[in-house]
Write a structure and sequence with these properties.
By secondary structure, this protein is α+β, with helices and mostly antiparallel strands. Helix content is 15%, strand content 29%. Strands 1, 2, 3, 4, 5, 6, 7 and 8 form an eight-stranded antiparallel sheet that branches.
Amino acid sequence: MTDRAWFDRSALQLAPDLLGMLLSHDAPDGRVAGEIVEVEAYLGPEDLAAHSARGRTPRNSVMFGPPGHLYVYLVYGIHHCINVVCGPGSKPEAVLVRAATISEGLATARARRGTVPDQRLAAGPGNLARAFGIDRSLDGADLLSGPVRIGPRIAHPQTAVRPRIGVGYAQEWAGRPLRFVVPGDPRVSRP
């Protein structure tokens, strides 16, 4: 079981430990749960791809709060992305959850996503948020008390490390190996 201290560490340490953990959301229209298979670490203000690199804003303020909370933002005005706020301490770091294997609530996820193949329901950060029914209304939600939770671990998968995706603007931070994946899982983003 996770506790606040489990989240209170660098995104670089937390990210690989999130692989194989259960992500769940108990929403009014049903519960969706599944194993996390892809994440990206964002290492605070010095990381030019991290939202905290721009300083504290109304949009990213939850990143500057205590670890173990959900940071949800809207990208391109249409896709929600979910992040696990971590630390260490008050350092504003987070881990983007990019993909999961849905093991519970498949019908609910399908109703939210339409007629896509099972392996694409929660593949990619926007698809994952939609399949799990997570939007900005859950920004700041406590991951220990729900309705969105992380844990317990349901698998101990092998881990591969790759560069993050879509952060070409981040100069020297763009190509750093800060994306952690379960190798060979069909939900994992390419390249």
